[in-house]
Specification:
Rossmann fold; 227 residues; alpha/beta; 7-stranded mixed β-sheet; 10 helices; 40% helix
Length: 227
Amino acid sequence: MAEQFDALVEEIGRLPEEWHTAGSLGRKVLQRIVHHAGTGMLSRTAETGSGKSTLLFSRMSRHHTVFALDYGGSISAVRNSPLFDSSAVEFVEGATQKTLPGYRFDGKLDLVLIDGPHGYPFPELEYWHFYPHIAAGGLLVIDDIHIPTIHNLFAFVRDDAMFELLEVAGTTAIFRRTAAPLFDPYGDGWWEQGYNKKRFPATLRQKLVNLIPMAMQRRLARLLGRA
């Protein structure tokens, strides 16, 4: 099975770089996804955006869901490709900001690729809708982490106990879901999240203030008040 997927990646890699104008994952990234996904078929997978990754997942997954617009012909190119297995793929067309909130996942996801709209806060919205459904041991792939808005998401997930960073391939990060408990998507608990623990307080001024003993802080405050 692994050899079949490797051969498929080679075929996909021979497609033109501008196969459609919305951009696609490169051969190396697809190879690394295959490597980390293992040798067997995946049960359920999902992605935002459509492209060469969709061709791969159509043959790697028994049920793959694509949330995308046909931007730059990204869906049309997939549907017209002889490498595409339409029987395994469900297209949910439209802006992910509208389609993801209304979608109901039937079972856990073995792999999720976030590669939809890149403006803030849309990658975070996609993450919020996906992360409760990713199975323990499943993969989370975040593309275009060189873009600041998406790098923010990458940095957050990298510090989160729910995910282990496996690899950064070019500008694509590949994580594996750990056995850590699910962070309540309807709660708060910001103080429990690794990203906040490492960076609290957020401002340099407050960090410097925290280095001053409290008694001295009070004394300085009184002196400043008199001034």
